[in-house]
């Protein structure tokens, strides 16, 4: 049975991927510093799968503790989610993001190489396409140009580090998965997106409006060159995203491979508001306000390469994501 260490495994995408891994028969351990997630997620994973994964509360910046985990781990592969991901916060606190995301990943790579663990799936982001982001980003789209925030720059830097590690270590296998906009929750309603502090992303904010914690959603601009004036994004259900990680894990091969994980379909902000209102049966209060700096009108994935080479295809819809999110909200 392949043994996989999932860093950031109590987080949103990490926890859903852990569930899919366990249900597919993998031996899974989680490493997380609980900076942006809760240890109770382990109980929920156990309720869903019947397995409570071994958990290491370790910060990737704590090299001695991280080394100890690897020396005893006997891992065949790593799926690396652990990282800070709040775009706005990264602008205010760039060093926190460079240290945590980049230095943390360097520590992880050192431990992998020191313990002959040579297979890695990395949680990257569509933000690496920067100013080249467009209606349909393919993996050939240039990266690293015009990235508007330190968070996105950390993802780009880590991608470049991983490519160089592969060049220096011919047996090292890396797959970079570039996500677009993850949404939704597990159909059990037991795990979902529950960031600590004030969220940046659309869906966690819609969730807070729905719970009455925020009076209304501020829609950042309706004067974009799109059909309804609001920005269009490629929202992918987190369970589809998790399944994409298992496909990538299975297909790992020496060198660095890159895949977009998205649906290829765009949805506007107002369409998301409408879908949530439809699923909840009540109108979500919102107000159109000024644009948010750095937002691009349309960012969508061309996921044909993942489809062709990994057999990846997003199956779940925006409506599925809204219903699953509501079930998760109702549970808490
Ligand atoms: C989506 C749309 C906003 C909040 C970011 C990161 C990206 C990825 C996903 C990790 C935009 C609008 C939002 C609100 C709004 N994260 N919006 N009111 O900006 O596409 O991407 O998160 O990988 O790396 O860059 O996602 O959810 O912040 O915004 O109108 O209160 O919703 O303007 O059009 P984004 P988002």
Question: What attributes does this structure have?
Answer:
332 residues, alpha/beta, seven-stranded parallel β-sheet, 40% helix, binds UDP-4-deoxy-4-formamido-beta-L-arabinopyranose
> Helical residue percent?
40-55%
| Fraction in beta strands | 15-25%
Give the ligands present: UDP-4-deoxy-4-formamido-beta-L-arabinopyranose
Distance between the termini: 35 Å
Count of β-strands? 14
Structural class: alpha/beta
Biggest sheet features: 7 strands, parallel
Low-confidence stretches: none
Order of helices and strands: EHEHEHEHHEHEEHEEEHEEHEEHH
> What is the helix tally?
11
Can you give the mean pLDDT? 96
The side-by-side strand order for the widest beta sheet comes to 3-2-1-4-5-6-11
Which outline best applies?
globular
Using only C-alpha atoms, the radius of gyration works out to: 19 Å
Walk me through this protein's architecture.
By secondary structure, the chain is of the alpha/beta class. The chain is built from 11 helices and 14 strands. The strands form 4 sheets. A 7-stranded parallel sheet has the order 3-2-1-4-5-6-11, sandwiched between helices. The longest helix has 21 residues, at 94-114. The protein starts with a strand and ends with a helix. The protein binds UDP-4-deoxy-4-formamido-beta-L-arabinopyranose.
């Amino acid at each position: 049975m392949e043994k996989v260490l999932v860093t950031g495994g109590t987080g949103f995408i990490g926890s859903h991927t852990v569930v899919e891994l366990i249900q597919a028969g993998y031996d899974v351990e989680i490493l997380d510093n609980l900076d942006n997630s809760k240890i109770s997620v382990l109980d929920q994973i156990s309720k869903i799968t019947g397995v409570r994964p071994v958990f290491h509360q370790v910060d990737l910046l704590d090299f001695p503790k991280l080394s100890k985990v690897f020396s005893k781990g006997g891992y065949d592969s790593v799926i690396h989610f652990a990282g800070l991901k709040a775009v706005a916060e990264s602008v205010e606190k760039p060093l926190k993001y460079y240290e945590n995301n980049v230095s943390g990943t360097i520590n992880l790579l050192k431990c992998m190489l020191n313990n002959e663990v040579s297979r890695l799936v990395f949680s990257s982001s569509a933000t690496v396409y920067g100013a080249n982001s467009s209606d349909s980003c393919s993996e050939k789209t240039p990266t690293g140009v015009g990235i508007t925030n330190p968070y996105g720059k950390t993802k780009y830097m880590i991608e470049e580090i991983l490519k160089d590690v592969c060049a220096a270590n011919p047996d090292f296998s890396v797959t970079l998965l570039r996500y677009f906009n993850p949404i939704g929750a597990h159909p059990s309603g037991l795990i979902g997106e529950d960031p600590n502090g004030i969220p940046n992303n659309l869906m966690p904010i819609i969730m807070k409006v729905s719970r009455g914690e925020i009076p209304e959603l501020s829609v950042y601009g309706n004067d974009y060159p799109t059909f309804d004036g609001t920005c269009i994004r490629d929202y992918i259900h987190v369970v589809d995203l998790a399944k994409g990680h298992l496909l990538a894990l299975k297909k790992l091969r020496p060198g660095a491979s890159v895949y977009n994980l998205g649906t290829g379909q765009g949805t506007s902000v107002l369409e998301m508001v409408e879908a949530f209102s439809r699923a909840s049966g009540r109108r979500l209060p919102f107000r159109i306000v000024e644009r948010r700096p750095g937002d691009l009108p349309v960012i969508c994935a061309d996921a044909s390469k993942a489809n062709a080479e990994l057999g990846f295809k997003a199956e779940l819809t925006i409506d599925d994501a809204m219903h699953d999110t509501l079930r998760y909200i109702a549970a808490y």
